[in-house]
Amino acid sequence: MITTVLFSACIFAYGPHGYAWGQEADQYDVKNLHQKFPKTAMHPAFHCPDMKPSPTVPTSVEFVKPADIKVIAALGDSLTTALAANGSSILSLPFEFRHVSWSIGGYGSYDDAITLANILKLFNPMLLGPAPTWTIKGYPASINETGFNFAVTGHNSLV
Length: 159
Ligand SMILES: *[C@@H]1O[C@H](CO)[C@@H](O)[C@H](O)[C@H]1NC(C)=O
Ligand SMILES: *[C@@H]1O[C@H](CO)[C@@H](O)[C@H](O)[C@H]1NC(C)=O
Description:
The chain contains six helices and two strands, in the order H-H-H-H-E-H-E-H.
């Protein structure tokens, strides 16, 4: 929640730089819809006027800046394990593409995959926890593979 708020603050800060969402949509064409990760950058460089951490560790959440965040972790289900997220057929269903999960995927950098974790890495390259790679549904995976993406495909809060 906190990170979401901070992130929103930066998106708003970023707005006045003149980027129009419509321009991005125009760059997509039908052919690109079939490419998982188009080679050309589809998004502009990330700008935030203040990328620095606080001079001292903040004592109140309202003063936490994105660069102050040192660790990221996630719980969840297949939305967070990113089940089949980079797949192109039903054969990809067993694969959890944790490294491109919207919240905690750590694949490459912001230029490769826009995830919350990759955005936070722009503020703090030492961020601990982004998921580095994919895993297979139902098979034990080490923390080297999952990072702090502790989501489990199929889990819910009712059992
Ligand atoms: C996604 O799938 C494409 C096509 O199979 C592959 O080239 C690319 O490396 C994959 N990306 C990730 C992040 O797994
Ligand atoms: C995780 O990576 C570290 C460093 O490369 C290695 O020493 C360790 O054995 C790995 N652990 C597992 C469970 O793969």
